[in-house]
Amino acid sequence: MSENKGIALVTGGAGGIGAACCRELAKAGYRVGIHYRSSDLSAKKLMEELPGSFLIKADLSTEVGVDHIYEELKALGGIDVLVNNAGMTKDAPLMRAKLADFDQVVSVNMRSTWYLTKRLGRMMARKSAGRIINISSVVGSTGNAGQSVYAMTKAAINSFTKTCSLEFAHYGILVNSIAPGFIETPMTESLPEEEKLKIIERIPLGRMGKPEDIASMVRFLATEGNYCTGNTFHVNGGMYGAL
Ligand code: NAD
């Protein structure tokens, strides 16, 4: 670990992209809060790997879970970087999709991001500084057959990012989102091999992304990017670019 840059929290920090973000931010000098919901073993292993890091266990889909994260960080004196990374998907063609799945995906991807950002944004405002990085998805811009709810929540994250950047600029808080393309993580490993090959054909760089490809953009937005706010940064091997 290099110089002490403060505290960074990564939600879903024990997962694919989340763990890479934790490693990268720890390398950049942050004391990293690894938030997780149920992966006790991998979260603990990651904490042992990263000096100064700590664990926060909470179900983000509940108000109590978010409030717990707030209290833990308050006890540590606040937060400098928030990476809203936790997310989930329940894929189905719209005509067969279930309302209960809609509610669950919205509550994790959208509602919890809104509520956690509201609570921790206030904490950052008291320090007149902070960085908030929301992990969105390329499908929030392109849509994707079978992902009506997921894509909708990710588009909402991009819009939320813009609004937060406007409300928080005054407090010195920069807010951006990163829209990954297809990344090799537990979320994509269940895709059939044939489907993966079709995806790779659409990627000019000819491969799926690695969690580290997203983590390096997270580090840039946390430690540099001093004039960047309200943007969605696409990291997808060239398969999509906003004009
Ligand atoms: P992942 O499944 O490894 O990570 C998702 C994390 O979210 C897990 O750690 C999980 O525990 C956590 N989570 C889910 N529901 C939760 C809840 N109720 N409370 C607390 N935590 C909860 O998958 P990943 O690919 O690393 O996904 C990370 C982020 O990147 C997600 O927001 C995802 O939508 C986004 N993303 C992934 C890809 C991809 O191709 N893998 C592409 C675009 C965007």
TrEMBL record:
The keyword Oxidoreductase applies. SUPFAM superfamilies: NAD(P)-binding Rossmann-fold domains. The keyword DNA repair does not apply. It comes from the Bacteria. Residues 6-181 form the Ketoreductase domain. GO terms for molecular function: oxidoreductase activity. Belongs to the short-chain dehydrogenases/reductases (SDR) family. This is Ketoreductase domain-containing protein. It comes from Halobacteriovorax marinus.
